[in-house]
């Protein structure tokens, strides 16, 4: 069964006009159930992740600032979100959603988090709509619990996974692969184990050829026993922050290649949604929904 993390806490309200589309976290499960891709039994509600697992990845001083709502104005500005208790609670629930989804992936082969993909959070700070890093927390949880010995992070969001790269800079058991817009945020890139910077306006065929050239060799080189897939849909040509040129079909083909590779190699995969900022919310929902449709078709 495809298990999906979802909580009403994911839909924390933001000031009117904020460019982060929180409404997608409500609309996506509604769409998936309306069309019959999933039903209510596919969803589970994450709780607050135990503090020890957050501190296994993030510095205690930074997390205490989040808990106490004592970030400086510049630190708050860097995250892109107005800081509040509800926002921090939201983030902590997202962390548990990804950890629990990873445990379901070990059981069923694949599992999803409606939110997550918070790859801009560093060990000691937040950036770019990310306060805590669910990819890193999940990977460290699996390693600490000895549920995985070699993890591959496949980050195909349009923005480089700079926080994830920083956290795992010295960790050989986590291989970070980020394929992102070369000229996009963050302007200062961290060093992933494999970074592929893409030119503005890249089309479907060129993008997919680059992915094909790199993904299968990585599977053979890294030999992962778990994959974390950041499947941001801000690669779409319609995305306000993206600058790449993919169609919705091209984005779907991207996800199909990743999921089919994981299935073929019999490697469990946890998918977290990442970014998506198209002007029309329907385009964001359709692109994200394709990931779930594919997971059902390929695995179940």
Question: Can you describe this structure?
Answer:
The chain is an alpha/beta fold and 300 residues long. It has a single domain, classed as Arginase, Chain A (3-Layer(aba) Sandwich). Helices cover 43% and strands 12% of the residues. The chain is built from ten helices and eight strands. It has helices at 24-34, 51-55, 60-68, 73-79, 85-108, 134-144, 162-167, 204-222, 248-264, 281-299, and strands at residues 3-5, 43-44, 110-113, 151-155, 174-181, 194-198, 226-230, 269-272. An eight-stranded parallel sheet has the order 2-1-3-8-7-4-5-6, with helices on both faces. Helix 1 (24-34) links the parallel strand 1 and strand 2 (43-44). It is globular and about 45 Å long.
Summarize the structure.
With 300 residues, the protein is α/β, with parallel strands linked by helices. The chain has a single domain (3-299), classed as Arginase, Chain A (3-Layer(aba) Sandwich). Helix content is 43%, strand content 12%.
